[in-house]
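Problem 12. The chain below contains 425 residues. Write out its predicted structure in token notation.
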Amino acid sequence: MPPRRRPPNSLLPTLLLGLLGAILAPPVSAQSVDESQVRGAPADADEVRAQIASIEKALSQLPDRAAALYLLAVDHQHLGDTLAALKLLKECVNLREGFDPSGSPELKVLKGQKEFDDLVTAVHKEFPVVAQAKLAFVTREKDLIPEGLAYDAKQNVLYLGSLYRRKIVKIDPDAKDAASQDSDFVPQGRDHLLPILGIRPDPADGSVWANSWDEKSDRSELLHFDASGNLLARYVPTDGAKHGFNDLVVLPGGNILLTDSVSNQLLRFAPAARTFTALATHRPLSTPNGIAIDEDRHAVYVADDFGVIRIELRTGASADVNPGPRNTLAGIDGLYWHAGSLIAVQNAIGSPRIAAFRLAADGTRVAQTTVLENRSAFTVMPSTGAIRGNDFYFIVNSQVDNLNGDHILDVTTLQPIRIGVVHLP
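Solution.
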């Protein structure tokens, strides 16, 4: 799911303090927040201050210091504390990992201030524009607001999920004309679906699994369709808690692993038992999002606010993937495995980028990073993608910022959805 502001009911304060084995931190002191900002504080100010206090206490234990600094800067600016935000951004940028605040919706109000502009200039000098992608497809509908994208190699089709229309579109990558290129795989309104997010075909039988999530109620369903798009089953957690099913992978044997961005969990779904079970990780997850499985089906990789966690499927052992110096695995939405590399859509590090992280043989650390697309016409608002052979197809302009719940904010600005493609190293 494209990045959204952490909601007031986020578990982030508790999760981060769990890293230290400590109780919930007290609200940030008066010295940390300028009293002049309190009078015009946003409605969620108390929750944001608690988040700030929690991150500060856990900072030394987090896998990527720059990722924490960036989130702190966003939180401080949300409270109107620009001086603190700029100080944190400077420390973050000086770590030279690729965070680029110029593309951040939360920090755009700082543009024009010399200190902010100087930071952006430094980032752009070290991380220049990369423009390698080409246009692959353009949808006929403008208001899809797509999130999930998947490729089925057996049928040679792409599946595109719609948040607004609550349906799944099928794209023929080899269609000879635009009119026959896309069609409804699951039509709008037929099954009364929630907004569609992660999509994955089941390699065993050609069926399709999809996550759905209504952000207003934080209600989710896991959906299963046959190869023709007919709904086979829908599965809902029975624990009474709020959930935000985001992305997923299909495991050998048919079980599903899915990320829950609201309960901050990695869930295993067993179709035979119809049960959702939370998997333990070595540290608490913070808004888990993208998920990928290696080609040997030995390990899965889960992206969250602070990086990527590798989990051994056989033993359940987990550890953070080491990004190495001057590199970050934070802020990843779509995450995919290709020939020993993690392919990532990083859209929560400021300006979005597409990157390939080649891993060491044991899969525990990044050996080489290749930025495939950065600050180009193809990184307007990317979200997720799909691998077809040695090419990576990805959503260029999701337009998720034009969607508020179940209505479009400004229909006059809607554009056809572009799918870009870039060749993988």
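Discussion. Residues 12-126 form a domain with the Serine Threonine Protein Phosphatase 5, Tetratricopeptide repeat fold (CATH 1.25.40). Students who got a different answer should revisit the alignment rule from Section 12.3.
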